[in-house]
Every structure is written in structure tokens, then in C-alpha cells.
Amino acid sequence: MSSADLECWHGALSRSNAHRLLTSRGLQNGMYLIRAGRGGRDPVVSLVANEEVQHFVVTTSPVHLCMKLDGGPWFVGLDEMIRHYSHRSHGLPVALREPCMGDSIPQALLAAGPDTPLHLATRNNDLNAIRAIAGEQPELLEYRDRAGRTCLHLAVLGGDLATVETLLLVGSNVRLPDTDGSSAMHIAARTGNTEAIILLHKFRSELTARAHKTGWQPLHEAAYTGNYEATKLLLEMGVPAHPRCQLGKTPAELARTRNHTRTTTLVESWSKPNTVSSRIHSSHFLHGAIDRLEATNLVLQNGPGSFLVRESRRRPGEFVLTMNFGNHVYNYEIRNSDHLWFSIDEGPMFESIEQLIEYYLQAGEGLPGKLTRPIEPVDQATKDIPARRAGPQHHEPPPPKAVDPNEFHGAQAPHIPPESLEMMNPLGEGEFGSVMQGVWHPPGPHQPLPVAIKTLRADCLVSGEQEFVREAAVMARLQHPSIVTLYGVCRERQTGTLMLVQELLEAGSALDFILNNAKTVGLEEFRVWAAQIAGGMDYLEERKLVHRDLALRNILLAGKRRAKISDFGLSRAVGSESDYYRASQGGRWPVKWYAPESVNYGQFSSKSDVWGFGITLWEMWSWAAPPYGNLPGSEVIKWIEQGGRLVQPKHCPDKVYKIMRNCWDYEKEKRPTFRELLTTFRRNPDYFDFHLS
């Protein structure tokens, strides 16, 4: 991306004037500008798509101060956002192709920019210069340097406590992330600077702030780097000992992967002093096995912030949190993993439900908001809540085996030497890394092959490698004309970067193809793609494989009439004794494509993939419209539970919509199998022209 791509800022330009300006520039498809929203708050992207001007608000998170377009990933700055959406549309009607020239984007809105005099003064620990510059230009406190760090990040990295304190006193924002999504508190924990941790906390820096890219809290940073004193300090300051990152890893697990035995033992054996009973006791909130309707009425009667814990009638011995937030009722299953830890969804794990409730009285992480007012049961003779049982003892891990750092272990797929790969253009960004276009030069007389190279970012080497290896292992076993072919795996020699090398499908994703070719793609292509996808999924179903992320964005095109299933990063093999598996790891779930049993109970099977197939069909016949529009995931789940389903798209034949509705049967056993769907497609030439070759 060139600097010219950032000269698209048009300040307080109104919506109507943005429309006039883009019209005067010829309404070129993909031309865009960025302007300030009303009151100078959230920026707005004005974009030309199919000769129409559309406007998209850039939302800024009040928690980690990052920004995103609706439904898209989080970014630290507008430069990151432009770079991402210039390679793929990812929910926009078209990709960002041509900036409508204006001013440069303000540096405060960039993930990285030129160094300022304040950055220089910070590096030199010049306290007088810091005070003078910040007094005259306080906005510089929020500017990031070329490496994406604010002055406060630089000061904490430098370790000079006086510089850190001076920057805090002149008004540095302790919540601002660097380009990796880390706050200054993350940096202090990572570097083991206990004095900086105490000082930052004094200025209200959050001890449990999460880096938006990884979900790491400061405790993850301290444990991963083996900073024992910083880890101990954070625990003594009251942070949960077992928070999980986006991929389900706890600080103890991260410390163990780095062989930090002392830190691992500290976190695993940490038991919070039992001061809970003086604050909140189970008698204040624990009700018996009351039903969901009664619990709902109680929290509505007691107003916003009220909550109770009830025993599940469906699963005796398990508990549910019912809470009222903004006069909306939410129910959360309290999980008791292996009878060792209590947690809600993928949040922190606690030794007792009382400790869990105490935590959510102080922090609303993962919930709509904080719990505030417990509802005491009328009948005080309630049963006691179980506490954590003694867990298995952890033994020292065996010493790591010597491995060749240039080889890729863990996936049964051909190893490709890194020198045989030629990197070219970026194709997009994934959860763990980027996808590059490249050329593979196989040994012997074989001709060079165009390939897609999927890389794993360095910051995911611990949290993402297991998923990356799993995807390689799954793809290496698959040979089907409707599934993307994996050629091999590779590890870059110097950096250790992991790579999947797979066939290049130059037409890109079906989602982007429809959005970019809306006038030339239609029903004929949709029919062929649907049949080909069903054929590939039937192949997976036969092999007891669950895809888990079947959606139009994960269908790649080798041509206008050749669709292939990709992205097996969420796939799992189900055991021969069961036709489903229960998800036990964290991560971001695409709930708008998920079946009810997947959302409610974490169960995934070929039948839940069938539900996702129905959503994928709906995306096609809706010309890549987002399912459920702007409805939040929580509201979608509630609507489905009440019997709601996506409406029939305007140009969708009745027969096709009937297939979709069959895929969305609430009872999974009533949904068709992929073999039945494939048979339907083959036997109905009236609307499906099935070709695999």
C-alpha cells in the first residue's frame, strides 16, 4: 500500500457532499473516501459500488479503542483497515480500489506513522521536553511511531520509570493499543517491569485488558515470557489465574510450552485467598431448580443488573446464570470443566461459583455488562454449590526432542523446501496469518506451479500452531475435485514461519466473486456450485469429518463453474463411537452459520454442517447478502429458538428454498444428509446441472 492510498481523508464532509464528490469523479467502482462522522466521532467510509455511493460507519470499541466495519475484524488504525479491504471486500459490496484524493489521514487514526518530536524526547528520557511538547501538542500522546507504538509504550519498553510517570501525568491514555493490540500494561508484564505495572495500575490501566488480536491478558504475557515476579504480582493484585485467550490457552499452559516450570507451578497452584464469603455467598443468589420462565420473570421484576443462579432442570447438578441487562434477559450455562473449574463460555476459570460471581460483579468481560444486584431466593433452604475438586498432579514435561528447525512436524503431508517457493502478491488475511500468491518450483522436470501460500504469524506460534498443523493434517488426507488440494507444508529457515502450500484458485472466494460480478453471475452458476459443494461435503461426511465453518466466504472458485471447499482450520475428525464432537476450545465462532446445538451445547456433526450448507445456499441466492443483516449474533440465536428462519430470497426457486428450510430443521436428525442432498441435485436437472469435471 502506497502513501497515496492514505490521502483519502475529507474531514467533516457531509454525507450528501461525499455523494456529490464521488459522482463528480465518475462513480468508479471501488473508489472510496473517509470522512469524520457526526460530531467528529466515528469515521465513515463512503464507497462506490455498482454506480451507487454507500456509506459504512467505522465503529470504535470503548474497551480496547480499536476500530472495525460492521461484521469485520478489528484494526488498530485506518491504514490497517484500508490495507485489508483493498485485498478483499470481506463484507463490503466491493474492495477498496481507488482513493478519492484528499488530505492525509490524521496520524491519531493510523496504526503506524512518522516519528514525532515527542517520540524522540521519550526515547531520550528528556522529561522537560516531554512536558513542554505534550503541553503544546497533547494530541501527539496518541500518535504511534513507525513501529506502531505510542510514547507510553516506548517508555515502558525503555524501562525508565520517571519517563513513564511523566507521560502519565501529562495525560497519556493507558488504554491505547500498539499496532499488535497490546496496551502499555501488556508491555510491562511482558518485560517483567513490576514497578511499571504498579504505576500503570495507579493510573487506572486495566489489569485484565485483552489484546484484540490474540485475546491475551497481561498475565498471559508475564507467564509466557517466564517473568515470575510480574506473574506473582498480577495474581496478588487480584487478576483471575486462569483466563483463556481466543484459542483457549491459559497463562499456565503458555508458560508450560516455554518450559517455565517455576511460573507454571505458581499459576497452577495459585489459590485466591477466600475472602468471598464476606462479600457474596451462595445464599444471596442461588435458587433451586426453577424453570427458565420463572427465572426470566424474577430478573425482569427486579430490574436491570439483577441476576440469579439456578440449577438446570434438564441437566441436574449443572447451573445457569440468568441476568437482566437493559431489560433484556440473558442465560449463561456455568460450565464445570472436568469437575475442576467453573467458567462461563470461554471466560476465566474459577475454583468455585462464588468466586466466578464475585469476578463478574467487578468485570463484565464476556457478558453484556457487570452483575450488580443478586436476587435472593424466597426459600433459603437451597443446596450448596459444588466447589472445585482436587485436580490431577502436573508432572514435569519431558525434555523437548531435538528437531530439524527447517522441517514441519505434526502433519502427514509432503515437505516442501522453502527455497523452492517464490512469494508474490498478498491475497488476504486469516485468523492466524496471511495468504500469499506464489510459485512453487517442484524438483525434477515438473513445470512451476502457481500456488496459494498460507502463513502463520509469529505472534501465533504458540496459540495458532496446533490449529495450523491440524488444518494441514486434515487437508493432506483429502483428494476430491470439490476440495482445495494441499501440495505440501513448509517451514521458513530463518524465521521458523510455518506455511501451507495449496492450489491457487485465482477467481478467489465465491463471496467476493458475486459481489464483484453481480451483473454477470446468477442462477446457473449457483446451481452448479451448490451441487459441487454438496459433493465435497458428502466426501467429508463419509470420512467422519466435520468442517465447522461452511460458508460462502470459504468456497473458492477455480472458474465460473468450478467451486471448491477450503479453510479447514476449524475441522475436527469425529470419533467412530459418536457422530458429533463437543467443542472445548475458545475462539471466535461464526454463530450466524451455526446450528442451534452448536451454539447452545458446542456440538458439531455433519448435521450441523448441513445447517451451514443451507445458510451458504441462502448467501448465493441472495447475491452475497449477509445472513440476518445487521442483527447481532445473540439476537439471531434468540430468533432461531423462537422458530424464525431466513426469508426466501427474491430470485430463489421454491424448490431451492425448500432445501434450505429442510437444512434448518431445529431437530438435527430431521435434516437431510449430504448424500441425500447430493442425490437430490443429481436427480433434478430441472434446476441443478451437476458436473464434477
Structure write-up:
The protein is an alpha+beta fold and 693 residues long. It has 22 helices and 21 strands. The strands form 6 sheets. It has a 5-stranded mixed β-sheet. Strands 9-8-7-6-10 form a 5-stranded mixed β-sheet. Helix 3 runs antiparallel to helix 4, helix 5 (151-158) runs antiparallel to helix 6 and helix 10 packs parallel to helix 12 (261-269). It comes from Oikopleura dioica (Tunicate).
Which properties best describe this structure?
ANK repeat, transferase, single chain, disordered C terminus, Serine Threonine Protein Phosphatase 5, Tetratricopeptide repeat, five-stranded mixed β-sheet, phosphoprotein, 693 residues, tyrosine-protein kinase, SHC Adaptor Protein, alpha+beta, 22 helices, 21 strands
